[in-house]
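Q: Here's a chain of 152 amino acids. Please give me its 3D structure as C-alpha cells.
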Amino acid sequence: METNEQLVVRFQAGDESALIPLLCQNNALIWKAIHKYHRNSEQECDDDLEQVAKMALWQAAMRFNLSTGNKFTTLATLLIQQAIRRELDKHSTIYVNRANYSGDPDHLKEAKQAARDLARKTVRFDQLKDDDRKFDIAERSANTSLGTVLDS
C-alpha cells in the first residue's frame, strides 16, 4: 500500500488514477472534518460537504510540496477544514444593510442577537452552556463577524 505522499507524487506526475486510492485512504479524514463543523445529520448537506472536502483534497494533492518535509495530511486537513467552513458560511451569513442601520441601539442589539444565534447554530449551544469560556469565544467570534459585516 502506497503512502499519501507517494500517491501525491504519482498524481502530480500526471497519473490521475492515483487520486482514487488517495481519496479512499483519506476518507476518514474527510468525514472527521465534516463532523467537526457540521453535527446535524442532514444527508443532503453531508453529501454537499463531502464533495467540497473531496475537491479540497484534490487541491491539496495539486499544491503539496514534498520538499517541505511536512506530511500530506497536514496540508489536506487545513484545506478541507477551510473549504467546509467556507461552504457552511455561505449558508449562514448575516447581511446587514448599512444604509438601513441608523445607529439605533435597538438595531445593534437585534444584529448582535442574530450573530449570537448564528454562533449557537454553528457550535451546538447545548455543548457550550457547560463551558462558559467556549461560549464567550463563540460569542466574540460572532460579534467580530458582525463588526466586519457592519463595517463593510
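Q: Can you summarize the key feature?
A: Helices lie at 4-12, 19-25, 27-37, 43-63, 72-90, 105-122, 125-128, 132-151.
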